[in-house]
Design a protein that fits this description.
single chain, alpha+beta, two-stranded antiparallel sheet, 95 residues, elongated, 5 strands
Length: 95
């Protein structure tokens, strides 16, 4: 676990590296410590930078909490506007 943020009552834990049977108890202990220090009703565990996890369905993890795939976040900031209509603008990469 590398960092945490808290915004608008939501606590986000950012985890990277790998979680396996050897280090899972250590990761769990760190997470419990953070949750005790920063109580929150809404907790997001960001696993984008995990290299490896145990299989969530097979371990029963998905029975304990909701697991969702995050939508990809992107920006068109700085792109040239190549069209505009009633519902928005169309941007290109200028190439």
């Amino acid at each position: 676990m590398t960092s945490t943020t808290k915004q608008g009552g939501k606590l986000t834990l950012f985890i990277e590296g790998r979680i396996d049977s050897a280090n899972a108890p250590e990761i769990e202990g760190k997470m419990r410590g953070i949750l005790e220090e920063h109580p929150s009703e809404h907790i997001i565990i960001d696993c984008e930078k995990l290299e490896y996890t145990t299989i969530l369905d097979m371990t029963g993890f998905t029975d304990m909490m909701e697991v969702e795939r995050a939508y990809r976040v992107f920006s068109v900031e700085g792109c040239e506007v190549i069209g505009q209509g009633a519902n928005g603008k169309v941007s290109g990469d200028g190439g």
